[in-house]
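ok trying again, last paste got cut off:
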Amino acid sequence: MGLPRKDRIRAKLKSENTTVRVLLAHPMHTGRAKDEADTLIPAEFIQDIRCWRNDEEVLTIKCGTATARNPYFSFQLVGGKQGDMITIRWVDNRGAKGTTETVVK
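nice, full thing came through this time. structure:
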């Protein structure tokens, strides 16, 4: 079950390495904030982010409640070529999942 969102991803070949930039649309609630009715907002945060280049998993990121809302990540992958498919998949602590992908330019 995914959340309605607009994740964004870009991947570009630079100096024989692939630079990936991804912006994930997620509220990232810590479980400590309160709403207008002074009720705690339940924790809701991304726990696991994985990146694949074509069919090979190349990166795993573990997150927690200290990660900002709508987190932005930028990283470089060694090698790659134009036309490679970069896929990002994430899972939050409530079981919501998201996937976004792009082609290396």
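cool. Residues 16 and 79 are 5 Å apart (CA to CA). Strands lie at 8-14, 17-23, 46-53, 56-62, 72-78, 85-92, 97-103.
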